[in-house]
């Protein structure tokens, strides 16, 4: 059971983090539809977890942790991006 919990936390967090990372990277170079298509594979696990919550298999904590960790990965990437933008200096500014 501990491995399930570890898998839910680490796997969910990395899925959320990579989904935003791939989407933002692909959006720079590809059309919007291709960016969405390239990041959609990372949404399979949380969608599967949402549907699996309806089953009677006593893994509800695993599914909830996976969804919560996925959302945490999305939020972590967004907060990191805002923090990095506020710390950047103008490369032309010599002061």
General shape: elongated
Number of spatially distinct domains: 1
Distance from N terminus to C terminus (CA atoms, Å) equals 56 Å
Give the uncertain stretches in residue-range form.
none
Walk me through the structure.
The protein is mostly helical. 77% of the residues lie in helices and 0% in strands. The protein has one domain (11-84). It is built from four helices and no strands. Helix 1 (2-29) runs antiparallel to helix 2 (32-39) and helix 3 packs antiparallel against helix 4. It starts with a helix and ends in an 8-residue tail after the last helix.
Considering the chains and any ligands shown, give keywords for the structure.
elongated, 95 residues, mainly alpha, single chain, 4 helices, 0% strand
Secondary structure blueprint with pairings:
Elements lengths: L1 H28 L2 H8 L4 H9 L7 H28 L8
Helix pairs in contact: 1-2, 1-4, 3-4
